Amino acid sequence: MEKKKIVTIHQPNFLPWIGLIHKIFQSDVFIYLIDVKYSASNFQNKTYIQGADGKGSRLTVPIQKKPDMLHEKLISYHPPNQKWQRNHLQQISDVYKKAPYFHDFFPLLEEAYQKEHAMLVDLNVQLLELILQYLTYEGETHLSTDFDTTAGKTERLVSLLQQTGGTCYLSGKSGRAYLDEELFQAKGIEVIYQNFSHPVYETRNGKECIQNLSILDWMMYHPGDEIKETLTKGKPS
Question: Which InterPro entries match (predicted)?
Answer without folding.
Answer: WbqC
